[in-house]
Amino acid sequence: MGRTLFEKIAARELPADIVYEDDMVLAFRDVHPQAPVHVLVVPKKPISRIADAAPGDREILGHLLLKAAQVAASLGLEDSGYRLVLNNGRDGGESVPHLHCHVLGGRAMGWPPG
Ligand code: DGP
Questions:
Q1: Residues designated catalytic
Q2: Under 8 Å between Cβ of 101 and 68
Q3: How many A from CA of 17 to the centre of ligand 1?
């Protein structure tokens, strides 16, 4: 199978506005922002979606969430708050089959989501 869109971004084969990177995750601004701050935090390992994560991915998943919170704080969202979202499968609204955590902030989020 070919590499995912987000693997190509991590390899700098496609452009993106990268805000954080380490050996396990990459964070970059969403190309279709749904809030004043909208960043995707993705594991470098191409796990398709949270439903396909394995017990061996525990460290990556924990790191992903910790880094999502760190990225949110680094972008000034710590006091105002923010939302983290994982879309899984058709009804979840998943469109890119490479796990990613949306970090959304800079405005008040509605509930329930549409
Ligand atoms: P989801 O629907 O949860 O699978 O979210 C996928 C997100 O990925 C969506 O908000 C738009 C974003 N996206 C899609 N293609 C690109 C791209 O090429 N670059 C960037 N930065 N974001 C992308």
A1: 100
A2: yes
A3: 12
Strands 82-85, 25-29: pairing kind: unpaired
Per-residue pLDDT at 1 exceeds 70 = no
Radius of gyration, alpha carbons of the chain: 14
The model's pTM is 0.98
User: What residue ranges in 31-87 does DSSP mark as E strands?
Assistant: 37-43, 82-85
- Total residue count of the chain as it appears in this document: 114
As a whole number, the mean pLDDT across the chain is 97
Ligand 1 in reach of 87 Cβ (< 6 A): yes
Cα separation values, 39 from 2, 14, 17, 20, Å: 24, 16, 9, 10
Instruction: Tell whether omega for the bond before 97 is within 30 degrees of 0, i.e. cis.
Output: no
Just give the CATH number of 5-105.
3.30.428.10
Q: pLDDT digit string (tens) for 7-33?
A: 999 999 999 999 999 999 999 999 999
Q: Is the CB of 93 under 6 A from ligand 1?
A: yes
